[in-house]
Each structure stands twice: as structure tokens, then as C-alpha cells.
Design the sequence.
């Protein structure tokens, strides 16, 4: 299978060939293995219009709310990094992942729920919430101008969702590069994957509290800049948007330049010292990742290619297949 993009130039053909090789290495089933695996067109017989219905739902929701794509992408990250890509972040209830303070600002749940309700009408008990979330995040990238790509499906929904598992498995916006790399490595993701997947911040928004560590309130109740690595003009804009005592509902775009487009502007922002989070800025300030940031800032095609590779790795973390987990009837509760 291949990553689909809009032209068939020689460069694109090479791009597709490279990704075909990667996909085969990631998802092929060896002749000696009988364990179920993810596969492309998993629902081709059981629910042939599944992916189309998910994409239609995402596109419709995004038309009315331009923040939806960023929310779906963030929701996927918060799912896959904790229990693996098993839809556990979608479960409601006390003590679930969703109840952790790090997850209370997540959005996009209603889109996943809408797609699930539609699929239950046409293909009851067939398409997992975990797959719906992966497909929705994939579609969110394409809808906002990013690469179009195929993803394997066949995930089943997890039946465990614990608040205690969230913090040890989630990147904090104040993390150093070494802290992020340690966590990503534990998930089977490389340093280059970290840089590419951080590019998700090219869309979406963040609450003021997510980057408040870069400022402090002085004795007069005014915010002042303490992180001198941040561009002064950009910092002043952030302080205007997030004054001392600002409401928890106030948000700022992750990318101040092209906030609703999935492009490589995020990396250009890093070069201009306009990374919103400390965890963004360190990608350019640390020599281990600086060159890759520069590469992506100069070449959007290179970023898109690596994004596709890294996204496939991300969405294969800790998946449940075969007899593991279940196919939930509703994404918010396990079957009874």
C-alpha cells in the first residue's frame, strides 16, 4: 500500500515506493506467524464504507468548527501514548484516563461518537472506536492540507482505562529533550519520530496554563518573560492573550502563522524562536534535533514523508487485535 498524494511526479513516485517498503516492514505477517495483525482494507468485506463514513463525519464537523482537526490529532496522541491505540481515552467515568487533569481539556470526542453511531446503524458491532479515532486523526491531517495516507485497521477496543497510567506516559510541555526521548523510546519511537510527530503542533491550540512556565507574575500582578529563548515580540503577544488571572477557557493557537493548515510552518516558527511550548523550543536549541528541524523547515515534502512514517508507527503502539479487547457498542463505555 502507499501514501497517496496529489501528483504523480518522479519525486512522488519515489516517495510512495519508500513508504511501501516501510509499510511492508511494519505490518507484514510472516509465514510462520498465526497471530492476528492490523491490515489495510480490514473492513472491505464487513463494512466497505467505514472509512468513507468516518471521513465524512470529520469533514462535516470541521466545516462548522475549524478547531476539530487539531482536537482529533491531540486526542489520538493521548490515547496511543497511554494504553496503546485502543480507544481507552474515550471511556467515561471516575478513575478513567479521561478524568486526569491532563485530559480534561481534550476535545473531539463528539466527532468520534457521531461516527460510531453512524457505523452502528450500517455495520453494527463491526468497527472499533480505536480504529475510528485513528481514521479520524488521519483524515484531520488531510482535511487541513497535510498528506493523504492509508492506515492499517483491525484494532479492538481496550477494556481498561486508569487515571494512574496517564502521567507516567504523557509528555509534559515543560519536558526537556532527554525526558521526551526517554518516553518516546519506551514506545518504540525514535528521535526523528519525536521531531516529526511534534509537527502535529502545526494545527490546534493550547490553554494558557500549558505554557505558563515561560512567564511569571510580578508583584504588580503583571506577567513577565522568564524564558529568554522565546522571541520577545511573540512573548509580548502571548502575555496580552494570557494576562495574569486569565480564564481557563482562553486558548492560543499552537502555530501563530498558519493555525488551521497542516504544513511545515511549525518548524519555521522554531527557527524564529516562536515555539509555544518549552518542549517545542528545545527541538531547535538542542544539537541532537536541530538539523532535522532545519530540514523540515526548508522542505515540506520531507516533513510530510517522515510524518507519514512516524504516524504509522504511532498508531501501531500497543494495539489489540484478534480476541483481545472488544468492539464497543458505544465509545464511552465498555460492553455489558
Sequence:
Amino acid at each position: 500500500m502507499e501514501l497517496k498524494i496529489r501528483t504523480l511526479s518522479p519525486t512522488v513516485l519515489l516517495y510512495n515506493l519508500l513508504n511501501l517498503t516501510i509499510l511492508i516492514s511494519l505490518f507484514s505477517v510472516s509465514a510462520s506467524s498465526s497471530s492476528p495483525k492490523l491490515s489495510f482494507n480490514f473492513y472491505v468485506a464487513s463494512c466497505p464504507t467505514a472509512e468513507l463514513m468516518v471521513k465524512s463525519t470529520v469533514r462535516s464537523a470541521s466545516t462548522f468548527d475549524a478547531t476539530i482537526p487539531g482536537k482529533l490529532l491531540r486526542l489520538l496522541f493521548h490515547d496511543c501514548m497511554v494504553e496503546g491505540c485502543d480507544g481507552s481515552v474515550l471511556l467515561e467515568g471516575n478513575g478513567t484516563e479521561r478524568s486526569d487533569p491532563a485530559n480534561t481539556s481534550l476535545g473531539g470526542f463528539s466527532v468520534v461518537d457521531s461516527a460510531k453511531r453512524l457505523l452502528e446503524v450500517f455495520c453494527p458491532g463491526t468497527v472499533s472506536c480505536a480504529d475510528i479515532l485513528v481514521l479520524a486523526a488521519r483524515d484531520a491531517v488531510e482535511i487541513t492540507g497535510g498528506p493523504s495516507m492509508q492506515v492499517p485497521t483491525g484494532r479492538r477496543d481496550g477494556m481498561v482505562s486508569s487515571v494512574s497510567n496517564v502521567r507516567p506516559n504523557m509528555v509534559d510541555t515543560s519536558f526537556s529533550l532527554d525526558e521526551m526521548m526517554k518516553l518516546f523510546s519506551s514506545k518504540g519511537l525514535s528521535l526523528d519520530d519525536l521531531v516529526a510527530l511534534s509537527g502535529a503542533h502545526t494545527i490546534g491550540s493550547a490553554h494558557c496554563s500549558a505554557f505558563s512556565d515561560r512567564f511569571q507574575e510580578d508583584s504588580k500582578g503583571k506577567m513577565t518573560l522568564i524564558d529568554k529563548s522565546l522571541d520577545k515580540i511573540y512573548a509580548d503577544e502571548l502575555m496580552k492573550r494570557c494576562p495574569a488571572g486569565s480564564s481557563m477557557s482562553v486558548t492560543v493557537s499552537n502555530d501563530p502563522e498558519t493555525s488551521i493548515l497542516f504544513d511545515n510552518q511549525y518548524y519555521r516558527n522554531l527557527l524564529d524562536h516562536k515555539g509555544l511550548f518549552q518542549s517545542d523550543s528545545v527541538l531547535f536549541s538542542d544539537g541532537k534535533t536541530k538539523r532535522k528541524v532545519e530540514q523540515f523547515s526548508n522542505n515540506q515534502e520531507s516533513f510530510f514523508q517522515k510524518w507519514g512514517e512516524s504516524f504509522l508507527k504511532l498508531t501501531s503502539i500497543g494495539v489489540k487485535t484478534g480476541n483481545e479487547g472488544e468492539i464497543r457498542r458505544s465509545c464511552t463505555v465498555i460492553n455489558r
About this structure: The chain is about 45% helix and 5% strand.
